[in-house]
Fold this sequence. Notes:
By secondary structure, the protein is of the alpha+beta class. Helices cover 51% and strands 21% of the residues. The chain has a domain of 75 residues.
Amino acid sequence: MNTNPAQRKRRIALFVAVVALLLAGSALFGAFSFSSVCTRCGAIRDTTEWQIPLTRATIFRMSSEHQTPVSTELFRSGVVSKHEHQWLFSSGGGNGVTCAIGEGRHIRPVVQSDGVASVLAAGQRFGEVQFRDRLVRLMFDSKTSEAVRGLGLCAPTNGFTDATEFHTWLSRETEFFDEMVTMYQKR
Ligand SMILES: [Zn+2]
């Protein structure tokens, strides 16, 4: 291609102008960030979507997944194996939306609880598998997950040293826990 210096200059100027416009445009795209929780294992996913301002049209999406104390324990004990995550919207904001909330917001604090993970682990270790499985069902139900979180808060911070300690704790907490579950189910 034969171009004289003037034409080349014009081309470079045009190119620079296009790049500048694209950069300015992408800075104007609204970023919407949200988090979701997997209702099978308790992993968490954080997503940012760049959208055309004030619309839900997504140009570009970036996600990262994180393990939580509960998901780590459920994988370790074999309650869950490799699966397709079932993401439930928790909360988010950006691009004109101050605060968007979903059912997952009830489950997120539970899967992040060390106390709940410790109770699940003790259930497995000290032969209360049925109780453990019931906890798993209840915590992935957005209605009752708060009750499981409450139970986790009552667990000893250093975990359970032996079966006796766990069974004593369990028989002390069960009645109140069952009451809480019934109360949350009625809401
Ligand atoms: Zn999952």
